[in-house]
């Protein structure tokens, strides 16, 4: 079943990606609304892409549930929930920067079993099924073999909520001196897939939603990366991290030591 779920996810993500790319190349893209702050934007294309994705998924599998960034949650009677980010990296899309993506995961009992991340400007399609490895445009992926944290290139991201962003910046001051360097790409799904490909050695962020990370986490771990959350927990809203196996433990220790202020803020804001 997982292979058929992936085939559907990939076909739908590709179609949504084509829609987004065609409009990006031919239309003036404007802000339709904002979410958590004036800088946390939604374009009309976010909503159009999610509408397309929901329509295609439910036409093929009408009993499934869907959780989407723009449309919220709709229930289903099957064991499958589709977790959808129709446009991850909206600000990049708005500014015509190439790191934006469509992310679709199929979850069974809360665990991703198939996932795809499509980055249309770069022509990249990342895929994985549980237990089947991870692939980029059909070629298998293996995470980095780096073994020292001071040689690791680490990705991260920032909230659009001002207080949380300030706390994330404080955490960065503890991480940056101990790693090779830090990158902020602007799409968590692309970041996670970049760890799968060894383009990044690790990635962490507080405040991610399931739609931001479900497909990318599966792709990264199927490529051999290690995923973890805060203080020994699984990745969640408080902290989502993935790292090459050789640097996972020191990065986990570093984040457990210094991430408490931003983790506490995420927890308090959602209580």
Automatic annotation (TrEMBL):
<dbReference type="InterPro" id="IPR033942">
    <property type="entry name" value="IMPase"/>
</dbReference>
<protein>
    <recommendedName>
        <fullName>Inositol-1-monophosphatase</fullName>
        <ecNumber>3.1.3.25</ecNumber>
    </recommendedName>
</protein>
<dbReference type="GO" id="GO:0016787">
    <property type="term" value="F:hydrolase activity"/>
</dbReference>
<dbReference type="InterPro" id="IPR020583">
    <property type="entry name" value="Inositol_monoP_metal-BS"/>
</dbReference>
<comment type="similarity">
    <text>Belongs to the inositol monophosphatase superfamily.</text>
</comment>
<keyword id="KW-0479">Metal-binding</keyword>
<keyword id="KW-0378">Hydrolase</keyword>
<dbReference type="InterPro" id="IPR000760">
    <property type="entry name" value="Inositol_monophosphatase-like"/>
</dbReference>
<keyword id="KW-0460">Magnesium</keyword>
<dbReference type="Pfam" id="PF00459">
    <property type="entry name" value="Inositol_P"/>
</dbReference>
